[in-house]
Design brief:
Helix content: 25-40%
Mean pLDDT: 93
Number of helices: 12
Order of helices and strands: EHEEHHEEEHEEEEEEEHHHEEEEHHHHH
Structural class: alpha/beta
CATH architecture of one domain: 3-Layer(bba) Sandwich
Bound molecules: flavin-adenine dinucleotide
CATH class of one domain: Alpha Beta
CATH superfamily of one domain: FAD/NAD(P)-binding domain
């Protein structure tokens, strides 16, 4: 950072979503970028992710939109109901703007699209390398270290103070089911019984190398205690399936594919808040920034995890370019400060919304859920409130009241 002549040298830690996206954008801008991933042979692990119009716009900028659209499943609305069929949430993207939609995508297909763009951008990828220290010898010579090592980051505290990094009491069991007839297509569908039980169905497109349409099934539950993950596993498959069927009979074609509870994977959710996500003091070595879940993991209620990671990467590239830091690493401090200013409002807003909404949808507070069941459905129909909710869903909130206009997507043919 001390005025070394360019080009900028960047080390990126973590090949999830934020890391590759930042690596591609910075390498294309002329930086020398090396991406480190601890897994030796990254494989298509994970269920469906929901991408919002804002995240899709970043994928278009990365040149990755076409392959992701091809493998993904368009989502027109978020629909949430009680077991008796009362509507709790009904948010159609087109009510915000007719061209808008979300996209359900298999995590592996998103990863494959990003991976394919790394080499052409000139990014050097080193897999099987776990970085356990920002002063690790492999990072020597980097002007900028990007920490994108996910929700359970072991490196973020070396960049800035961490105000909170705790698991939520609730998480989920999930699985992917085949949906060859595409009967779940078109919407993210959720059924709520109080705040204690939720079953979610997210059409997730296709996994890499297989053209069978898939649908992710999420079963929300406490991580511990008498209704927790271990208790559900101990009670056995039939008990869980009965419970899930009574909540959501239409999930039967997916539930019947689960023949062993071990096929359900456990997904803990984290609440991560950092006071500062950048390090610009040259006395501490290279400049550093934390992106994605490592900086702000949240519960998936708002479907923003991958989206915020993509937006972080785009904002970092914008700030580095605007400050001319690719050719002049001496400008890194001002670039990182500009990055932090640009992301503070949106990230804090989503962190707050996530923390407020999570107890209403996933907690032991059934009283809150009873109010939710009566109030949310009618609220979704009040135009100004509906607009606020849709802005939050689309990923364009910049503050509790502020929002930017959702991007107009450059469709593949027009890219
Ligand atoms: C295996 C896995 C499965 C997931 N499945 C789902 C899912 O089904 N649904 C969903 O909504 N979200 C899922 N997520 C989370 C989702 O991918 C993220 O919320 C989102 O993509 C934000 O990405 P990120 O880049 O910030 O972090 P992540 O996608 O978590 O990526 C972090 C990367 O850093 C690597 N890493 C960690 N520590 C080190 C280290 N010390 N050195 C080098 N590399 C390191 C990890 O191996 C990982 O590849 C999953 C994440 C992972 C890692």
């Amino acid at each position: 950072m001390g005025g070394r002549p360019g080009p900028l040298s960047v080390g990126v830690i973590g090949a999830g979503t934020a890391g590759p996206a930042a690596a591609i954008l910075l390498a294309r801008a002329g930086a020398r970028v090396t991406l480190f991933e601890r897994v030796a042979a990254p494989s298509p692990v994970g269920a469906g992710l929901l991408l919002q119009p804002t995240g899709l716009a970043v994928l278009a900028r990365l040149g990755c939109l076409a392959p992701v659209l091809e493998r993904g499943a368009p989502i027109a609305r978020l629909k949430g109901v009680t077991p008796t069929g009362r509507t709790v949430l009904d948010l159609a993207y087109r009510a915000r703007r007719p061209d808008l939609a979300g996209l359900g995508v298999h995590r592996g297909s998103l990863f494959a699209a990003l991976l394919a763009a790394l080499a052409p951008a000139g990014v050097e990828v080193r897999t099987g390398v776990a970085i356990d220290d920002l002063d690790a010898p492999v990072l020597a010579g980097c002007d900028l270290v990007i920490v994108a090592d996910g929700a359970r980051s072991t490196l973020r505290a070396a960049v800035g103070p961490v105000r909170r990094a705790a698991p939520y009491p609730y998480g989920a069991l999930w699985c992917l089911g085949r949906d060859p007839e595409r009967r779940f297509d078109g919407e993210l569908f959720q059924v709520y019984r109080g705040a204690r039980q939720m079953l979610g169905l997210l059409p997730s497109g296709c996994a890499p190398g297989d053209d069978t349409p898939l649908c992710s099934l999420f079963w929300s539950l406490p991580m511990a205690g008498p209704r927790g993950v271990e208790a559900v596993r101990a009670a056995g498959l039939d008990a869980w399936r009965r419970d899930a069927l009574s909540l959501c009979p239409r999930a039967e074609p997916l539930l019947s594919q689960v023949d062993d509870l071990d096929a359900l994977l456990t997904a803990p959710y984290y609440d991560v808040v950092m006071t500062r996500t950048i390090r610009v003091d040259p006395a501490h070595g290279s400049a550093a920034v934390v992106l994605g879940d490592a900086a702000h993991a949240m519960s998936p209620q708002l479907g923003q995890g991958a989206n915020l990671a993509l937006l972080d990467a785009a904002a970092l590239a914008d700030a580095v370019l605007a400050q001319g830091a690719v050719s002049n690493p001496g400008q890194l401090a001002s670039a990182l400060l500009a990055y932090e200013r640009a992301r503070r409002g949106p990230v804090r807003t989503y962190q707050r919304l996530s923390r407020w909404l999570t107890p209403i949808f996933q907690s032991d507070h059934d009283g809150l859920a009873a109010v939710r069941d009566r109030v949310f459905g009618p609220l979704c129909r009040v135009p100004p409130v509906r607009r606020l909710m849709l802005d939050a869903l689309c990923g364009v909130k910049t503050g509790l009241l502020g929002a930017s206009e959702p991007p107009i997507l450059a469709l593949p043919a027009a890219e």
